[in-house]
Amino acid sequence: MGNLGFQEILLIAVVILVLFGGRKIPEFMRGLGKGIREFNDAKDNVKKELEEGMKEKDRVAANGTTAAPASNNTAATTTQP
Question: Its GO biological process terms (predicted)?
């Protein structure tokens, strides 16, 4: 599986030509190209966000600080005589 010879590719091309006709093939290929382009753009955006997240994590770890939210619980820290 995965080894397509010349005869198999030719058969696939003939079937596509019969199913879609000569006029629809360019439209089909344009749509396929747009879909692949959108997929690659989304993949690149996810990769970029992951890399930025890793850089942020490394930067926070290098500074020795955490991004934990500050607590507003003052009742536990104050004492009454």
Answer: protein transport by the Tat complex
CB 36 within 8 A of CB 45: no
Work out the end-to-end distance of the chain between its first and last CA atoms, rounded to an integer number of angstroms: 82
Angle CA 13–27–2, to nearest 5 = 35
10 Å Cβ neighbour count for 32?
10
Q: In terms of pTM, does the model score above 0.85?
A: no
- With contact defined as beta carbons under 8 Å apart, do 20 and 28 qualify? yes
pLDDT of 27 strictly over 80: yes
Q: Are 18 and 25 in contact (CB under 8 A)?
A: no
